[in-house]
Amino acid sequence: MRIGGTLRYRDTLKLSTAASVLGAGLLFSPSPAHAQQIVPGNSAECAITVIDGEKVAICEGDLADGITAGPGTPDFKRIVIRNPDAPIAPPGYAGIELVKNNGDLTIDVEDDVRIDVFNDPNIAGDAQGIFAITQDGFDLSLTSAADITADGNGGFARGIEAVAEGGGLVRVSNEGDIIATTTGGPAIALQGRADLGGGVGISNSGVRRAGSNGSGEREAISAGILGQGFSGANVSVLNDGDIFVTTSPDQFDTDFNGVAGAIVGKAFMIPALAASASSMMPISPSRAIRLTVSLPTRPGRDIAATAGAIDKFGAIRLKSVN
Predict the structure, then answer these.
(1) What's the chain look like in SS3?
(2) pTM to 2 decimal places
(3) Contact call for residues 119 and 155 (beta carbons, < 8 A)
(4) Torsion-angle region of residue 221: left (phi > 0), alpha (psi -120 to 50) or beta?
(5) Mind listing the pLDDT tens digit for each residue in 123-140?
(6) CA atoms within 13 A on the CB side of 109
(7) Span 256-290, pLDDT tens digits
(8) Phi and psi, residue 285, nearest 5°
(9) Dist CA 92 CA 134 (whole Å)
């Protein structure tokens, strides 16, 4: 079915006391574009045209070295990625990375797209399959049917990462299969994050696989789907896909910083959080996955953590309120 220069997001995902105190301040730092990457509006493979009064970048053909856009590159409101000659498989950095700070952004990745990435420790930043962020309160909408594999190579493994900074809304609809694996670090197949009263909405029907090997205390989250809301941002996850999360038997978590779960939701409010979580998931022991929810009420203290067997279809919503 058809659906249709960069800043890099720095986040340790440790969700520690310090993270909750600084919840409103998602930190980003510049990461230079790689010479081989396709830049919409500057590359023949990614022309920008006007459709119904909006600037749309249409990327197709030779996209193997990845796509990047951000402040300082030609502007567009929507991007469509389709008809690649080969998998998007850049050597050691993200497959698609998009940053926009002057308006809403819509991203459509069609089902003939495949993305294969691995993290090169000699290159700054992590190698996500798709990384997208809107800043200054603008909204982000990402629809993907791409199959993605992300090898963290000892660092972070991230399939899709979508962020709205400054009070915007993140909407992610995913139909493709995502595999994120690594050794010694966290693995997250699909994640969304928002702050300052914004919101995260994730809908998934693809297969999620996240695997993290190693030993000792896990210091960051591993998850099939991760939704995070800071400073009043709400989180909603609707899943109709199979999720498989594996960790090494030599790993453990004692403080929720390194929780591993099929669906993980985190919500923070400063200085305190009153949160409600409802899961509408019929029990089906024969087809069970694991649901893990952790809701810290104030820095340094977790009061609610639930884990249960659920059917593969269901929803969970977190709301942080004053």
Answers:
(1) CCCCCEEEECCCCCCCHHHHHCCCCCCEEEECCCCCCECCCCCCCEEEEEECCEEEEEEEECCCCCEEECCCCCCCCEEEEEEECCCECCCCCCCEEEEECCCCEEEEECCCCEEEEECCCCCCCCCCCEEEEECCCCCEEEEECCEEEEECCCCCEEEEEEEECCCCEEEEEECCCEEEEEECCCEEEEEEEECCCCEEEEEECCCEEEEEECCEECCCCEEEEEEEECCCCEEEEEECCCEEEEECCCEECCCCCCCEEEEEEEECCCCCCEEEEEECCCCCHHHCEEEEEEEEEECCEEEEEEEEEECCCEEEEEEEEC
(2) 0.79
(3) yes
(4) beta
(5) 877 789 999 999 999 999
(6) 31
(7) 778 888 888 877 653 323 233 333 333 222 233 33
(8) -55, -30
(9) 24
Task: Judge whether 130 and 142 are in contact, CB under 8 Å.
Answer: yes
294 within 8 A of 302, measured Cβ to Cβ? yes
The whole-angstrom separation of Cα 257 and Cα 253 is 7
Q: Report how far residue 14's alpha carbon sits from residue 218's, in angstroms, rounded to the nearest whole number.
A: 9
